[in-house]
Design goal:
The chain is α/β, with parallel strands linked by helices and about 240 residues long. It has seven helices and ten strands. The protein is globular, with a radius of gyration of 16 Å. Bound molecules: 2-amino-2-deoxy-6-O-phosphono-alpha-D-glucopyranose. The site of 2-amino-2-deoxy-6-O-phosphono-alpha-D-glucopyranose has 14 residues, from helix 5. It catalyses: alpha-D-glucosamine 6-phosphate + H2O = beta-D-fructose 6-phosphate + NH4(+). Pathway: Amino-sugar metabolism; N-acetylneuraminate degradation; D-fructose 6-phosphate from N-acetylneuraminate: step 5/5.
Length: about 240
């Protein structure tokens, strides 16, 4: 695990862009993408860059159950706004939050992930250490699943909605096993409310109580974080 201290999202975004460029130069075909506020600086850097994704495929970590693609709070909408409209890909895959048959949707998405092995996975981290929407207690062997969101996650994500009742209570998420299958991983964490999760992920015991702690076992992880997010790490 490499922990890289950055001043802000702009610096984290630029440094991660350099890793992305190396990955693309090495022939990467599929990127794993994430939503939330943490990767926003990275997408800004990518949009302003000359990278070309027209031969690439993307797969996203997760999507809320029950939100249509044109709902501004859906992760599909987020990706269109922050990346896909500016940088067209050959194909963009996200779980379909409107699927009527969720079991069939899980199988469909799992097949997509198997057909498109991820070379570089982008991640944020939840305050409770979740990655994707894999909440504490999720098995490290978990593949794509429907998740009941924890009250703390619903509360944390309520800032993007008009009122907390509008936050979906379920999501479809890649599993922890899918995330660990990526060849390399970049995780962004900014702000003091991520400090405990980062300390646990980097220095804590590897435990399903803090999903991101499994990243200690991955051979190539870059964590870009600011002083506040690193404030609980022991030097
Ligand atoms: C959500 C997403 C995660 C994201 C996390 C943190 O729960 N499913 O993928 O990492 O929130 O979000 P933020 O970066 O906005 O703090």
């Amino acid at each position: 695990m490499q922990v890289i201290r950055v001043t802000d999202q702009a610096e984290g975004g630029q440094k991660a862009l350099a890793i992305l460029k190396e990955t693309l130069a090495a022939g990467a075909q599929t990127l794993g993408l994430a939503t939330g506020s943490s990767p926003v600086g990275f997408y800004e850097a990518v949009r302003a860059s000359d990278v070309d994704f027209s031969d690439l495929t993307s797969v996203n970590l997760d999507e809320y159950v029950g939100l249509a693609a044109d709902n501004p709070q859906s992760y599909r909408y987020f990706m269109e706004e922050h990346l896909f409209q500016a940088k067209p890909f050959k194909a963009n895959y996200l779980p379909n939050g409107e699927a009527v048959d969720l079991d069939a949707e899980l199988s469909r998405y799992q097949e997509i992930l198997e057909a498109h092995p991820v070379e570089l996975q982008i991640l944020g981290i939840g305050r409770n250490g979740h990655i994707g929407f894999n909440e504490p207690g999720t098995s490290f062997d978990q593949t794509t699943q429907v998740v009941d969101l924890e009250p703390s996650t619903i509360e944390a994500n309520a800032r993007f909605f008009d009122k907390i009742e509008d936050v979906p209570t379920k999501a479809i998420s890649m599993g922890i096993k899918n995330i660990m299958d990526a060849k390399a991983i970049i995780l962004f964490a900014y702000g003091a409310d991520k400090a405990a999760a980062i300390a646990g992920a980097v220095q804590g015991p590897i435990t399903e109580d803090l999903p991101a702690s499994i990243l200690q076992k991955h051979p190539e992880v870059y964590i870009f974080a600011d002083d506040s997010a690193l404030s609980k790490l022991e030097v």
